[in-house]
Request: fold
Amino acid sequence: QQQQQQVPESGVVVLGEDGQRLLWLEGDERYEAHMALKRRLLSERRTDVAVSNAQAVTLAAKVEVLQLVAAFLLEHHPDHFSLRSKGRLLENRVTGQTVTVAPPYADDPLVLASQLCQEDLVLLQPWGTSSSGDAVQQQQQQRSAAADAQAGSQKGAPVYEISAAVVCFPARWSLREKYALPMQGVHKHVPHYQKHLGARVDRLFQNMRAGSIVWRCNWFVYDWVKDELDLFASVPESEKFGVAAAAGAEADNNPHGANLQGKEKTETGELTAAEEEEEERE
Reply:
């Protein structure tokens, strides 16, 4: 009953604000199969599904995510999860696996957290957190810097980048291509994103406060899934939009790519007349 809350038109809900939707991690009958697929992908294609910088601030955030996930599962699913070895190991009775949830960690803390829940986990931090001198990474950041500056940094407001992530179920996008990019760069080929949506997304992150959990309603139709492995739909931009788009061409100059992305990125939706008027006023 908690999960049947009416979702506002914006699709954004602050969990617990009205006493509902407190279960921010959800599981279903495919939990065991999805966890097995995650383990397989992390073993066979780790560089495609897991990314992270080496900054101390990011490590601290990843540890916090692991602690939050472990605490949630222990509170809401005590029949399936329990602590062992003086609280260092979390036993998952559904999969038969144990995960270290206290130092010293057996793996990257975000990877460990991802092995406990079906959800993909993406950590966003202020843009520039991942800067480490890597030439390819710097090239990606510079490619999107102008767009992000226009979206808010010129006004003194921070923009956010993907600093670490474990994504085993991407909706036809490549984590390796999006890593360390600001939000404008991540959504570069989403129609109308820069004009109508970019500033809103930036404000959402800027207005979030520590301790609050925000849930966003989103859906995606998979019409090609024949087995579990098909859920790993990692598709590079060169395949979706052509070589020109992968090299940095705007989606507006690539009608085929724009149409494809418009069908797939359903979370962007269509702007209503009222929303367009509001954007004009802003």
